[in-house]
Structures are given as C-alpha cells and as structure tokens.
Structure to design on (220 residues):
C-alpha cells in the first residue's frame, strides 16, 4: 500500500506495476489495468465509464464530457482536462500531477484519497464537490476559480495560488490552509469556519473580515 502525507493528512495512492498494464488507445468501454500515453480524445463524451488501475500520461481530454462513472486507483500525469465537464463522477485513490484543468467544470463529484499536485485549476468551477476521504492540493494554481456549495472538510491546500478564488456556501471545517496567501481571496468569513491557519496569515484574514463586515477603519 503506497501512501503520502501532506500536512497532517495521510493519503492512499495508487500502487501500479507497469508490467501488469496493457497499452490502450481506444477509450470505448471500461479501461482497467491500462497504460494510455499521448492519446487525443479531445471533445469525447464518456457516459458511465470506469477507469481503474491505469496510468494516463500526456493525454488530451480537453473539452470532453464525463457523465457519471468512476476513476479509481489511477496515476494521471501531464494530461489536459481544460474545458472539460465532469458530472456525477467518483474519483478515488488517484494521483493527478502536472495536469491542466483550466476552466474545467466539476458538478456533484465525489473525491476520496486524491492528490492534485502541480495542477492548474484557474477559472475552474467546482459545484457540490464533496470529499469522502483525504484530499490535497499541492503547488496548484486556483486563481479565478469558483467553489460553490462544496463540502471539503479536512482538505489540505499547500503552496497554492488562491488569488480571486471565490468560495460560496462551502463547508471547509478542519481544512488546512497553511502555506498559502489569502490575499485577494473572494469569500465571506463563514466559508472559513473551522479552518487551520498559520499566524502569518492573520493580516490577510483581518483584511477579509474588514471586507466581509463592510467595516470602516480609520487611523484616528
């Protein structure tokens, strides 16, 4: 069993043996124990597809549509999901590294034991995304993204770019936001209830409070 630790969070990761994987180029049907390299499935439609125990590298899945289905036990590297729509999906025990999710739309997606590292989520929209287990974002770009009605308790964000990230009606109780700048975060204080911060982030939190409460601050 392969694991990694981010902050205080322990994440189960896929443990793939390349000798057990077969090279696949056709996205039709469930994909299990497969190696998918440099495939171009731009604009493809996936309905209730299952991808299990597979490794995706350098694939172009931009502008594709995913309805229901599951991605389980996969390593996804340098893959382009920009402009993609994922709805009703379950993503579990996956490591997503160096991938592009610019403008990607997640709706009713369930995450469990998922590590996003070095990924771009700028302008992405997460709506009713829920964490059923460990989830971490490390060195990710989340600028100008929107999280709405998401339930991501205990999620860890580390060394991420959060400028103009908008939080709306989100539940982040127990989330660890240490190691990120909160400057220009677009959120009311209620979305940050119960999160963990470092003392160096308190000036940014104070500025958020001034904005949220519409305070007038004067020197004298």
């Amino acid at each position: 069993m392969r694991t990694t630790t981010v902050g205080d969070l322990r994440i189960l990761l896929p443990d793939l043996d390349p000798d057990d994987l077969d090279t696949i180029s056709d996205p039709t049907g469930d994909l299990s124990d497969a190696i998918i390299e440099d495939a171009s499935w731009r604009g493809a439609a996936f309905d209730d597809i299952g991808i299990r125990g597979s490794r995706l590298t350098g694939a172009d899945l931009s502008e594709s549509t995913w309805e229901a289905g599951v991605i389980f036990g996969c390593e996804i590297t340098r893959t382009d999901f920009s402009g993609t729509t994922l709805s009703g999906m379950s993503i579990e025990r996956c490591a997503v590294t160096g991938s592009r999710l610019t403008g990607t739309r997640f709706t009713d997606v369930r995450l469990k034991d998922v590590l996003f590292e070095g990924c771009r989520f700028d302008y992405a929209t997460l709506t009713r995304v829920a964490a059923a287990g460990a989830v971490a974002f490390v060195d990710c770009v989340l600028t100008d993204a929107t999280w709405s009605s998401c339930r991501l308790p205990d999620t860890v964000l580390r060394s991420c770019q959060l400028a103009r990230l908008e939080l709306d009606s989100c539940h982040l109780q127990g989330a660890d936001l240490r190691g990120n700048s909160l400057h220009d975060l677009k959120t009311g204080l209620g979305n940050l209830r119960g999160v963990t911060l470092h003392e160096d982030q308190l000036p940014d939190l104070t500025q958020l409070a001034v904005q949220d409460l519409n305070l007038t601050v004067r020197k004298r």
About this structure: Residues 202-212 form the longest helix (11 residues). The chain has one domain: 2-212.
